[in-house]
Amino acid sequence: METKYYYSYNTEENAFLGKFPAIKNPRRQTEYLLPAMATFKAPPETQEKEAAIWNGEDWVIEPDFRGEQQVNLETYEVTTVEYVGKIKDGFQSVTSEVAEDIQTNPDKYKVVNGILTDISNTDEYKEFLHQQEVQIRKSEIERQLLELDTKRVRAMCEPSIKDESTGETWLDYYNAQVAQLREELNSL
User: What count of other Cβ atoms lies within 10 Å of the Cβ of residue 90?
Assistant: First the structure.
């Protein structure tokens, strides 16, 4: 006796789920029962990253990137693909490694001609890194200046000699350091 099979599909996008043995209709032994969300028509063979989709009359093959990473080209938000079909407009499929790098270093990526591109080897990105370093150094200098201003106020209140041989006071010493830092800050 030959076994008859039905082919089930899911409710979200009608994607093929599996092949199951059909049960004979107890009232008509020549017929088989067909559950909801199923067909007796066998789906075509699919390749990797493809899914068979039931369109109500026949199976069609669609791209299937479910479970892979995609990035929003506008916000650089990384999400997991949860739908069958081509990657949606405004998104790009990326590997897990690239997705992690985008989340860690979004500034080293830029959309060029509609494609998210790693720009870490470009002059533009090197200039960006340089500007970040300059900003960090400026913040450090400003912190040091604030600290020196506090010391200078203290030195003005309690004038004392820092170096007996030169006669330099603590205030003179701190003023020289402030002048040096301000000069560096202005050069940045």
Answer: 13
Say which residues have a Cβ less than 8 Å from residue 119's Cβ, sequence separation at least 6: 108, 109, 110, 112, 125
Enter the tokens of residue 133: 């370093």
d(CA 65, CA 15): 13
Query: What is the tens place of the pLDDT at every residue in 55-107?
Result: 999 999 999 999 999 999 999 999 999 999 999 999 999 999 999 999 999 99
Place of tokens 């199923």: 38
92 vs 72: CA distance, rounded Å:
7
Q: At residue 90, what are phi and psi to the nearest 5 degrees?
A: 90, 0
Q: How far is CA 68 from the centre of its chain?
A: 13
